[in-house]
Amino acid sequence: MGTLKVSYSSCTFSKFLVICMVAFSLVDSSYGDCDFKAIFNFGDSNSDTGGFHAAFPAQPDPYGMTFFKKPVGRASDGRLILDFLAQGLGLPFLSPYLESIGSDYSHGANFASSASTVIPPITSFFHSGLSPFSLSIQLSQMRQFKARVDEFHKTGALCTRGTHNYGVQSWSCGMLSRIFGAASSCSF
């Protein structure tokens, strides 16, 4: 019976792959390339690019050594599916939202955090091992992120490149204005 089940599931998977390949081959390429300006990601360790490590730096050394040649806070020893997606879209790797130092949010942000859940945990991280950054918290972080970008535009904040833009260098106003549709009042 076990062999029949494996055979049936592998046959079903093979049919699924064939259907996907046929569907992708039938897609009309005349629509042109999609021009994605940014990725905003929510999730858990499958797509955490360092947010959990930024929030809890006392954790053991993060992984990522294989590709990045240094610890980068990922729950894998290399790139994540999100990294391949960004690369395929011609975008840089996403900075974790919780890592504010040296981050670049001009092409989106990653709100994912290892051990996150969809439903907020009812116990603390130290008792359950679940991250306090559930999906509702990640969505709240996104709303706060967008509000800050909007506030920069309302106040006429000047974002510049260089070494004298303390705390503002991660806000690439031109790109963020295109992402969120705000009027660009920033100059470079």
Automatic annotation (TrEMBL):
InterPro entries: GDSL (IPR001087), SGNH_hydro_sf (IPR036514). This is GDSL esterase/lipase. PANTHER family: GDSL-LIKE LIPASE_ACYLHYDROLASE, ZINC FINGER FYVE DOMAIN CONTAINING PROTEIN. Gene3D superfamilies: SGNH hydrolase. Belongs to the 'GDSL' lipolytic enzyme family. The keyword Glycoprotein applies. Residues 1-32 form the signal peptide. Keywords: Glycoprotein, Signal. The keyword Signal applies. GO terms for molecular function: hydrolase activity, acting on ester bonds. It comes from Vigna mungo.
